[in-house]
Every structure is written in C-alpha cells, then in structure tokens.
Amino acid sequence: MKRNITVSKTIKKSGVFNRGRAGCEARLYEIKGYAFGTPCLNEEGEPAEMDVHRIAANDLKEVMFHMSRRETDFDIRSITLVGLIVMLSGSSYN
Predict the structure, then answer these.
(1) Beta bridge pairs of residue 35
(2) Phi, psi of 52, deg, nearest 5
(3) Residue 79, CB-side half-sphere exposure with 13 Å CA sphere
C-alpha cells in the first residue's frame, strides 16, 4: 500500500495556505483506488488492498487536477475529506 502526503502546487507557489477564520488553512483529502492493471481481487477472491494518497489542497477540483497530472493511470474509487489543516495566525510558518 502506497501512502503519500502531497501539498498541491498552488499551495507551494503561494508559500502559504488560504486565509481562514483562525489563520491559514487547507483541506486534507484521502484518495483511494487502484493503478490500472492492478487486479481488484486477490488470489482468494477477496477485494485487494487499495492504494492511498493524501493531498492537502484548497478544493476538490485542485485535488482532481493534481491526481490527473501525478497518477495518469490511477482508477479513483473514493475521495474523503479527512480534515482541515489550520495554522494559527502569528505562526512562524505563516
């Protein structure tokens, strides 16, 4: 199972997350699926374990754009909004 956390390009370009109520914020999405050519069932006929990618992005459209660029042969089965990443104002990363 592949586990990655990726910060999208627009967040990297701007150097900060979007401004929010408490400071700067971004949404953390979890994408599950299979690479094309990977069997969905294992030898016993049970569902195979899905690959998991985690991406911090501003919105779902940005996540889809990033996944289409990064994993061209990835069959997405589910996308879950895991949480909100917040950096309080005055943080040294802000």
Answers:
(1) 74
(2) -125, 130
(3) 16
DSSP single-letter state for residue 37: T
Which amino acid does the sequence have at 31? I
Share of the chain above pLDDT 70, in %: 69
Compute the 3-state secondary structure of the chain and give helix, strand, coil in percent, each to the nearest 5.
20, 45, 35
Residue 22, pLDDT score? 55
Instruction: Compute how many other C-beta atoms are within 10 angstroms of the C-beta atom of residue 72.
Output: 9
Q: Which residues pair with 51 in a beta bridge?
A: 33
pLDDT digits (tens, 9 = 90+) for 6-48: 555 554 554 435 555 556 778 899 999 888 877 778 788 888 8
Q: 89 or 50, which is more confident?
A: 50
d(C-alpha 45, C-alpha 2), whole Å: 22
